[in-house]
Fold this sequence. Notes:
- The chain is an alpha+beta fold.
- Helix content is 19%, strand content 35%.
- Helix 1 (6-32) runs antiparallel to helix 2 (35-43).
Amino acid sequence: MKRWSPESSATIKKQIQKRLEKRQTIRELYKQKSWKTLVKVASQTKGLYEEYDTIKVQGQVICVGDSVQINSGDQHDEDYVGTIKQIISIKEPTTAKLICLCRIQWYMRKSEIIKSQPKCSEWISEQELFITNHQEYILAQSIITNCKILSCSEYQELDEIDSTIYFNRLEWDLQKKQFGNMDAIQQYCLCFQPVNPDRQYIQCDSCKNWYHFECVGIKNGTYDKNEFNCRNCQ
């Protein structure tokens, strides 16, 4: 039979104290919404941290790699959009309650971009997203639904578009507040802007270039002649 010594008793007290501190830390970090620190603390303790490939939210199965709409709260008119990079479950030691977090790579929307680049408002579509290199954790319960993020060409080919379908063609640098690959985007019309799928275009029958209705003087959104030639080809 082992005898208890003052040394062993002190060691046990330290271990108990560490466990209590760990429980308190996870509880407090959850209240503070310090998700990154919460993940770090939980991952250092066996049995508190686990990763998954899928999760069920709002009756939908959400997988790593899916793009989702995220509740932006009462302060914002538009929902956020991001792609899931990681799904984590953390057990709160005292209550055994599971805290489910997702690591999200964020996209920016038109309303956010034009705050820094107001002149871009004409060619940015309402359903256009801009990928960033910013990632952070969110509560899985804040996910609203799955959504699709297509290329610009795929988006233009659609006959019907709902509020969960977006497209992406450009990166956005959050620090510099500018586009990361603007040179790769073809520009059109007399105004030399990237295509905006929300606007109407007409093709010149001679040079085959595309022009905005407004830029070539077509009013009321209609053109009733058999052929159209731009001013360079007339």
